[in-house]
Input
Amino acid sequence: MFGRKRKVRRRLFETPLPDAWWVIIDRNVPYIRSLTDEDRKELGGHIQILLHEKRFEGCGGLEMTDEIRLTIAAQAAVLLLHRKTDYYPTLRSILVYPHAYFSAAERRLPDGTVTDQPEARLGESWFRGSLVLSWDDVLRGAHNPSDGHNVVFHEFAHQLDGESGAMNGAPDLESPTRYQHWAQVLGHDYNKLIEEVHKNHRSLIDPYGSTDPAEFFAVVTETFFEKPKAMLHRHPELYRQLAEFYNQDPAHAETDSETP
Ligand SMILES: [Zn+2]
Output
């Protein structure tokens, strides 16, 4: 990283968020209220950098506001806590639509191409450059911190996944041994989920995670932050892999009780 960029980041990181911004964040993202003061301070620094480096763009008639920017950046910053990070380096723009923007018909991708792939989620993360979210669903996901669904965690987990060079369910893990453990544990639980979905069994992990390994990683990230105690109990190995990657232990944090 160039020295100037590092300097700018350090200055931003040390600039406290205005109180009025914390009011918005705490109102919209109850998960963040449960963090320690130290974590909130770190989070505030990450938020400043994300707001500075990423372009937030209102689409489909949505007017961009501080509330929208903060609600998204604050949740994206949760995934960066306690970790060495380059702030989603390939992500430049966050496009926000007022409502779920997708349809089963054709839709235009940010690069101008048109796809008729049916869209099953409320946001979408592209490997290069931009990420699409619906404001409705961002708010809904944030308001309920324990239902296991959070579209911002989901889409930014895809971004982390892509940092290893490919979106394949394995983010940058630094050592070959860690990749081996990761592949073993996530592969096992991914196959188990496919089986559960096949048998129509109820699973803790959203069945959407059985789509492919990349979706599995994004979906279990949602479960890890929103249903950590249940995940620790029912998928202890998976919980440990994610706790090591995210360097966080939400199952032992003082949070509101999880909805079963
Ligand atoms: Zn996804």
